[in-house]
Records
---
Amino acid sequence: MTGTTTTAARTTLVHTTVESPLGELLLVGRASDTAPGGTALVSLSMPGQKGGAVVQGGWVRDDTAFTAIARQLDAYFAGALTDFAIEYAEGAGTDFQRKVWHALDSVPYGTTTTYGQLAAGLGLSRAAVRALGTAIGRNPLLVVRPCHRVIGADGSLTGYAGGLDRKRRLLDLESA
């Protein structure tokens, strides 16, 4: 993934929804002078997602702000895109969570890793694997920041905020 992070000054958030094979996705963003289409993604969530974003008062619906992102999502779900080029706005989260979220970006399309392997790659102790799992569960950018590629040490599907059925569908799409 080639996502980059911005700290755009604009505080008004824009949002839209796009249809996908996983259901309607809610995209939330912030204006950015450097992002394709002018919008840096703050959140991508889906219906029924544990801890997913919900449209708030003060947010502005702007379907055109997400045209470039929606095109990439369509291409991904069609099997024609394996690497997103989306700018992310630095959102909420602790330093530890952001460190874990950035590590997810290094898990290649079509592969999986385990929670333990990801923790080891970050230099975390075995005792920190649970905290790593909690941070992954709070990933605000489902699909584009590939937390679905993290599985249990025994190969089982565990812990996906969008639901295990959707995790399986994403991994099947990627043939992982």
Note: Residues 4-10 have pLDDT under 50 and may be disordered.
---
Amino acid sequence: MVSSIVVQYTDLLRTSDYDLWSRLRTLLEGRGLDPDRTVVVDLLQEGPDHEDGRVISEDGRVYRFTLFYDQAAEHGARNAYLDGWTDITDSWRIGSLANRTADAFAWMSSPAESS
């Protein structure tokens, strides 16, 4: 069963008007990913100025990144930027998010998700 975080965050990426999600869409597009076909495995606040994320692209590549922005500022996310963009397609099976990533792959290929 896919994590509700994957479903919820993927929906937010695709539909939310909040600054954080709008900016993340723009940043992912800049990396060549289609936000409407990208699945968010996780986006977790790791400090006062950044969140660590993991996404799966339409073609099955897995990427890890850090999203930096001023979380204290009212519109700080509008100036967010990606750092540490890393293709982990060959190594995602190792680590704390391996099960969630595998479940996200299964969800991506399910008929309900692709409709």
Note: Residues 4-15 form the longest helix (12 residues).
---
Amino acid sequence: MSSTRFDTRLTDFNRRMDAAVEVLSREYGGIRAGRATVSLLDPIKVDAYGAIMPLSQVATVGAPEPRLLTVQVWDKGMVKAVEKSIRDSDLGLNPMIEGQLLRIPLPPMTEQRRQELAKLAAKYAEDAKVSVRNVRREGMEFLKKAEKDGDISEDELHRLSDEMQTMTDEHVKKIDEMVVHKQKEIMHV
């Protein structure tokens, strides 16, 4: 097997690490630091029609005021399920039902709430790091098997392993920078 084929495989592992960083970025969009944004409800999943679905597939989310979100549920039968999903989320929100419309006033950000959100940001970052490390572990296993099977030399194994580690370190550093930035944003009064 040629080393270019392994370089292509490393590119695939890099893409998967990039995806973990992108997921973290989307999750951070859902953590509010001050004003209402529709992305705040992006992480919420609803038990709908026998499946777990993103909120965006059963309702329309709006932010008509800086401290208010609205959720217009499309199917009257799904209102209670949507309300329960929002209430049970880690976001600390209490929706009020008005027909098929849920009004969600955003509570003022207390110091305690800011600390909770900062911890949530750290948890999301740790999950992203675990994903990156899992990709690294899978890549290292792939390379060791290739060396054992005689597809690459020991020198090539070391070179590719070093590249895999460098990729991992770069992604972990990016995640660390993201969490520091998000926590500063959350704690800023």
Note: The chain is about 60% helix and 15% strand.
---
Amino acid sequence: MTDPQYEIFRDPYRMLILLATLVSEQKGETTLQFDNVPYYENDTFLIQHDKFVYKKAQTEITWFQFLGRDIACNKDYTREEYNKMFVDCLASLYNIT
């Protein structure tokens, strides 16, 4: 039996792009490559070529081949819950408490 996959809203998708863009910038890349999202991991989240994992809630967002294609999440969140998750990830990227 496979885990259910839920549709991701437009706003959280945009926040995921922002997070991936900021990771790219931290790695010295000038632009985000949607077909080659850079690998980054800390205690809060992991992002790589075809998935994002929010470790605090075991949330996984996946996509096929490039960021945005067939994007799905393993949990059904409200927009507010997505926003809190991504704000936490952004804070962890810059070590803001």
Note: The longest strand covers residues 45-48.
